[in-house]
Amino acid sequence: MAAIKGLFMLLILALAFAGASHLQLALAYDRPPPRKSLFVAPSKDLDSTSPQQVHTSLVGQDKIRISWITDDSSPSTVEYGTSSGAYGFSANGNTTSYSYVTYDSGEIHNVVIGLLKPNTQYFYRCGSDSSPEFSLKTPPAQFPIKFAVAGDLGQTDWTSSTLEHIEKSSYDMLLLPGDLSYADTDQPSWDSFGRLVEPLASKRPWMVTQGNHEIEKIPVLHSQPFTAYNARWYMPYEQSGSDSNLYYSFEVAGVHVIMLGSYTDFDSSSVQYNWLQTDLKKVDRSRTPWLVVLVHAPWYNSNEAHQGEAESVDMKAAMEELLYQARVDVVFAGHVHAYERFTRVYNEEANNCGPVYITIGDGGNREGLATKYIDPQPKISAFREASFGHGEFEVMNATHARWTWHRNDDDEAVITDSIWLVSLASDPTCKV
């Protein structure tokens, strides 16, 4: 008995010397198992001209695009106002559709409303007078502003949990670095995804870029990539001088956001590269002191998943210098189904004037978590964990912002990682 007690005490001492923080993490958290995939069917209360899959996106400083789908033809009109049931303004838009092998989409409506007041609640209805009322809040025109960030959402019970946590976060805008629906050529799954996210995306602007699951090319049968993505998620690329919905930029409340395309040409002779050069030269850090970039395939990654891919390695080789010289503050990526935050980095080394790279591909996809990391952990990797969750980037003022990562622990959002950031535009040692 004495020997057993002695061994027990040695075990306790060994655990104590291993570090209290590691012990707390091991005892406090059991990684969640996968959850079933979802398919959200249309409501039985809707008719063929009822708006479905309503989502909103920012267009310039004071305009919002309202997008929705109807089964049959319906007016591309939005009536809106600042009081429920009182619509003093209206705007008209256009309608498109697309075909994919044997699938024909519904009528896809896009209407831009505005000029709108910042940080204001608007009520609106789409199409006919009998359509239901929706509401949205416009982003603020100045600090503070809170971004929710979630990648690789998909459609599972974990996705639902992530969306529930985001909805409770009082965010102003959602940023999504690719892999939205995981339809993977099954076009009705795009419709399901639109219905799944409508409760959130109809209330706040959702700004997205594409991932590999949006390509959806089929040899011989369908050779055009990004057909569904481009038709359904129309982003404001023209306003930033881009010629493609796959990469664009926008400004909101003192933040310049650049959305890059991992799965279109990005080498130094490409249109996207030249556009990025031009866009970065236009950035005025006195007006937008924060500079944020989103890309799907991460340029920095210590997870065993997705190592050595051209979309990561070659794009980093082509564009990292541009982002470093422009003093980009943060780069968000998806693709790897886990969370990881790096310190400020440039050319594989810690650099106080480089971006903070964050992988946030843990929204809830059906493929599960990427649980294996490279050992030992690189010095430039500050925090990593394979769990589902989302992030919040709250920009307080021109100099300070707080990043928090919230994992979906037992269906409750838990802040597991947080850091305060100082904008590089305000750092005298990092002249912009």
Automatic annotation (TrEMBL):
Signal peptide positions are 1-28
All copies of domain Purple acid phosphatase C-terminal, residue ranges: 354-414
Spell out the Pfam families in the cross-references: Metallophos, Metallophos_C, Pur_ac_phosph_N
InterPro entries assigned: Calcineurin-like_PHP, Metallo-depent_PP-like, MPP_PAP, PAPs-like, PAPs_C, PAPs_N, Purple_acid_Pase-like_N
State one molecular function term (GO). Answer: acid phosphatase activity
EC number(s): the record gives: 3.1.3.2
UniProt keywords (A-Z) are: Glycoprotein, Hydrolase, Iron, Metal-binding, Signal, Zinc
Q: Does the keyword Iron apply?
A: yes
Please write the reaction equations for the catalytic activity of this protein: a phosphate monoester + H2O = an alcohol + phosphate
Task: Show where the Calcineurin-like phosphoesterase domain sits.
Answer: 145-339
Q: Which residues form the Purple acid phosphatase N-terminal domain?
A: 51-138
Requisite cofactors: Zn(2+); Fe cation
- Report the family membership: Belongs to the metallophosphoesterase superfamily. Purple acid phosphatase family.
Q: What is this protein called?
A: Purple acid phosphatase
What is the source species?
Cinchona calisaya
